[in-house]
Amino acid sequence: MSAQVRFFLILTVVGLSIALIWPNLGERTIRVYANEAAAPEKREEALQRVEKYVGQNYAAKYTAARKTAKPIGNEKAAEESFVSIKGKFVQTAFLNELGRLEGIDPDRILLEPMWVEEKLMAKPFKLGLDLQGGMNLVLEGDFKKLKETLERQYPPEMLAGLKKQLETETDPEKKKNLTNKITEINNAFDFTPQRKKQDVEGALEIMRSRIDARGVSEPLIRMQGEERIEISLPGVANPDQAKKLIASTARVAYHIHDPAGEAGRLTQEANREFGEFQKLTTDFQRQDFVRKLEAKLKFPKTLGIYLSYDKRPNAKGVSELMATEFLVLENQPVLTGDQMSRNVYATVDPERGNFLVSFELTAAGADTFGKVTTENKGKLIAILIDNKVRSAPRINEPILGGRGQISGSFTGQEANDLALIIKEGALPVPMVIVEERSVGPTLGQEAIDSGLKAILFGLVLVILYMIAYYHASGVIASFALVINLLLMAAIFALMDFTITLPGLAGVVLTMGMAVDSNVIIYERIREELRRGKSVKLAVAAGFERATLTIIDSNLTTLIAAIILASKLGVGPIKGFGVTLFVGIITTLFTALVVTRAVIEWLAYTVEVKSLSIGFGKHRSAGKTPAAALRGGKV
C-alpha cells in the first residue's frame, strides 16, 4: 500500500468517524408537544410546565424556548405551539422525564434529525442504567401461586364431577364439550419445563407491549435462563408505578355474591374476625388466617373469602389502597378479562367526576354477560383485579349492550394503567421480582464524570510517558492513540452499542494496550538502526518484523474478548468484552496503518537522516555502527 493510499484511507476514516459521533458533539434540538386531545388552556399549562422544569433542573445544560411551527414530518398539518429545547449529549433518561410531565404527549417528544443521522445512520451514544439512571428488574415466574389459583378455580370435586358426567352422557355434542373441558383443565395443571418456558416467554411479550405503550425509550427486555425475565428501564422516574405496571397479573374477573343466601351469611360471620386479620403483618400470615377461617366456618368448595379494597388515608394522610372487609364470593368467575375486546379506555364519570375504565365485550362475552346479569338480578357482581375486590355493584337489571365500566377509586394514572393492562391481556403466569436495582440520575452523572476523567487522565499519562521516552516518535504514537479513541467512539455509535461503566473500563484498558504495538515497532526499528542500517532500511525491516509479533500478541486477547462478548458473557461482562474487542481492532489499524504511514512518510518522502526514537543509541544514515556507538542520534 503506497503512502498516498494510506493517508487517503486515514483521512477518510477520521472524517467518517467525526461524522458518526457528531450527534454527540453537535447541538441537538428537542420538540416537546402537549396532548392534542387536551383543551387549549391545558396545553398551554403543560408547555409552561416544561419550560419551568427545564429552567429549574437543567438550566446549565439545556435552554428551552416556546416556538410555533408545523409538526416534523407532516408539512400539511397546521402550525402548533411546542417547546424547543437545545443542548448537547441528549440522553434517553431526559426524554423519559419530559414524557412524564403532566399534559405532555410522550409520543411527541421528538429529536430533530441531524443530516449525519439521515445520511450516515449516525446515532447518539446509548448509556446504560449505571451511567444515566433508571431501574433494572429480574422477574421470575411464580408457578406455585398459579397452581394455587387454578386449584381454587378448578377444585378436584369439579373435575371429578365432569368425569362422572362424561361417563353417563349420551349426547355426542355435550360429550364432546365435556371432553374438551376436562382436557382444558388437565392442560392448565401441566407444568412441564416446556410449558413453563412458553408461559414466561408469553409474559415477556405482554410486558414489552405494556412498556412500549407507556412510551419508555430504549428499554431492554430479555429472557434470563428458562423462567426469568430481565428488564432495564432507563430514566424511569417512578419505580413503584413501573413495577406495578410490569409485574401486575391484572386478572380481571367477575364473581357473583348473593347477599341473601349462604354467601351473605358467611360474609357476616367472616367479618367478625376481620379485626384480627388486620393485625397480621405478612402475606403468609394473612393467607394462613383465611384458609383456617374458611375451614372453621365450614365453607363449601364453591365459595371463598376475598378481600375488598378501597382508597383510605394512611397514617401520613396519603391516600392508599387498603383492605376494608371480607366478601364471600363464588370461586368460579362468571366473566374474565379474556372476554373483553381491545376497545378499553379510561374515562371520567360526568356525574361524580371519578375515573372509570370503560370496556366492550366480545360477541361471546356479551352473550355471557347478558345471561349472567339476567339470572342474577338483585345479587352483587364483584369486579376483581389481581384477585382484589375493587368494586361490587348490584345487578338491578340485565346488561345486554355488550358494554361495561369498572369503578374503584382510581386516579387518572391508575385508570390508564388498568385500561392498558386489560387491553394487552393478563400475564400467563404471575411474575415476582427477585432482583431490583435502581440508579438515580445524579449518581449516573457522577459515574459519567468519573469515567470521562479516568479516560482523560489515562490518555494524558500515556501521552506524557510516550513523549518522554520516545521523543518525537512518541508524538506519532500519541497521535495514533487519539485516532484510536476516535475510531472506537465511531464504531460504538454505528453499532448502537449501550455503553456501561465496565465498557468505559474497557476503553481505559485499551488505551494502555494500544501503545504496546507502537513500543514493539519502535524497538524493532531501534534494533535495525543499531546494526548500522539506514533509516529507510531500518523502518522497512522494523515494520516487517514487528507486524507478525503485533498480530500474535493481540490475537490471544482478541479470542478472550470474543468469548466475553458472546453468549457466554452477560450484562457488564459482555459490555467489557465488546469494548475490548473493538479496542483491539482499532489498535491494529492505528499501529499498522496510521503509525506506519507517518513514519514511512518521514523516512521515504521527507528522507530524514535520523529518527528521534527515544533514549539509548541513535543511528543516522551513512554512519557506521562504530560511529553510532560513539554518540550518534536515532
From TrEMBL:
Keywords of the record: Cell inner membrane, Cell membrane, Membrane, Protein transport, Translocation, Transmembrane, Transmembrane helix, Transport
HAMAP family: SecD_B
Stated family: Belongs to the SecD/SecF family. SecD subfamily.
Entry GO CC: plasma membrane
Compartment(s) of residence: Cell inner membrane; Cell membrane
Subunit and interaction comment: Forms a complex with SecF. Part of the essential Sec protein translocation apparatus which comprises SecA, SecYEG and auxiliary proteins SecDF. Other proteins may also be involved.
MF terms (GO), sorted A to Z: protein-transporting ATPase activity
Span of domain Protein export membrane protein SecD/SecF C-terminal: 433-602
GO biological process: intracellular protein transmembrane transport; protein targeting; protein transport by the Sec complex
Segments crossing the lipid bilayer: 7-25, 451-468, 475-495, 501-522, 543-564, 576-599
Every Protein translocase subunit SecDF P1 domain range: 201-257
Residues annotated as domain SecDF P1 head subdomain: 325-429
Pfam families membership: SecD_1st, SecD_SecF_C, SecDF_P1_head
Full protein name: Protein translocase subunit SecD
